[in-house]
Amino acid sequence: MASGADTLEVTPRQLRWTVRGLMLGLFCGILSGTVVAVALPRVVADLGGGQAAYTWVVSANLLASTVSIPVWGGLADRAGRRALTLLALAVFAAGSALCGAAPDVLTLVACRAVQGIGAGGVTAMAQVMLAAAAGPRERGRYNGHFALVMAAGTVAGPPVGGLLAEAPGLGWRWCFLIGLPFAAAAALALGRAPRLPAPARRGPVDLAGAVLVTGSAGLLVGWASAAGDGFAWLSWQSAALAGGGLVLAVLFARHAARAADPLVPVRLLAGRTVAAAGVACLAVGTAVFAAPVLLGQYFQLARGHSPAVAGLLTLPMVAGMLVATTVTGRLTAATGRWKRYLVLGCALLALGFALMGAGAGRAPLWVLVLAMLAGGAGAGLAAQPLLLAVQTAVPEARLGAASALVVFCRALGGTFGVSALGALLAARLTAHLDGGAGTEAAYTAAFGEVFAWAAPVGLLALACALLMRETPLR
């Protein structure tokens, strides 16, 4: 069992309850980000929203989750880890209940942000608690379980959401309420977990850094969501949002480099492995979070399927993720090696999106099945090696911040990926419709182009994976 400066001796029984509670919390947190993907057309129609609502119902959750992750990570290096995890679950449950009762789009977007703050805390604290309770080899095995749960939550969201949206007596509001029993079960399991002590570090959380990173990410996500649709790329609105976001990003980087205890430890990025892993996490996050949203809309709008059928058609991606994460976790724990699986995963990710781009234009369904299997397997293979690469490259005292950095980068990539690819989809759809294409043909062509544009993201992750130095797990 784990031991060290900021851990205590954890019995096997306590570790099992800890892992069970964290897995349940992770599942409901990740599920909340994708379960609404297929139900979006019905949600927006029922609440009277416009085209921008499609992006913001998803992006509000992802953005709030993303910017809250480093705050939770900073708190984890100062306060009791179990108490913080339970607090995150409570915030998530409150946000989920409010989403289920939202009367209009603006209220739903605001409540999705609350839900995202709780989900970000659950996601960050899961890695922090595991790092404090288990040794490096055990982390490799349990990270495989975590990656499996995250894969299931990410890609099972669309089929579950589609079924709920069409189920008699339920409807799309249950896409938000479904997380409540999982959150309650997670809290009960964590009640049997040990009280993991906080590290010796004290002092206030870097609130200035939180304000800067929130402002920067918010402006850039707003720009990526609306540019080309709400206003022209070359316009004063575009310049204001993008320029303001970049200025705040530079100010945040300078602040983090000078602060004694920054919110996001950018000093960790000085190492080649950590820096490459951060960029790779951005790329993998883009693929993992954007794929379910895009596929759910593609099967409905381009191929004419119902929400339930569209959700079920994404199951090949689920299968690829589940098998890959299971196998990778066992092999990593047995061999202590992770780089080979990361390289293969990034290559498959790029291949999967390339095949999706080629197959979107009315190719046989088996082509899309192969594409989703490859993309899902790639995401599953890459997920936990990226975390292990960072955790083995930093001192034990910085495990909390380093783990949160990985989750932050992955969520940030997902936030920008959903926003940017959604904006690209809207722009290409408008171009095809203006060019005289029919609605179905326009959607088919636009989705094919968006999937093709996502393929280089996988190649970027592959290049980063090749740059990392492998440190065998102890």
Automatic annotation (TrEMBL):
Chief place of localization: membrane
UniProt topology in membrane: Multi-pass membrane protein
GO cellular component, one term: plasma membrane
Domain Major facilitator superfamily (MFS) profile per the UniProt entry, residue ranges: 18-473
InterPro entries in UniProt: MFS, MFS_dom, MFS_trans_sf
Transmembrane segments: 21-41, 53-72, 84-103, 115-134, 146-165, 171-193, 205-225, 231-253, 274-295, 307-329, 341-360, 366-390, 402-430, 450-468
GO terms, molecular function: transmembrane transporter activity
Classification via Gene3D superfamilies: MFS general substrate transporter like domains, Multidrug resistance protein D
Locations listed in the record: Cell membrane
Keyword field: Membrane, Transmembrane, Transmembrane helix
Listed Pfam families: MFS_1
Protein name: EmrB/QacA subfamily drug resistance transporter
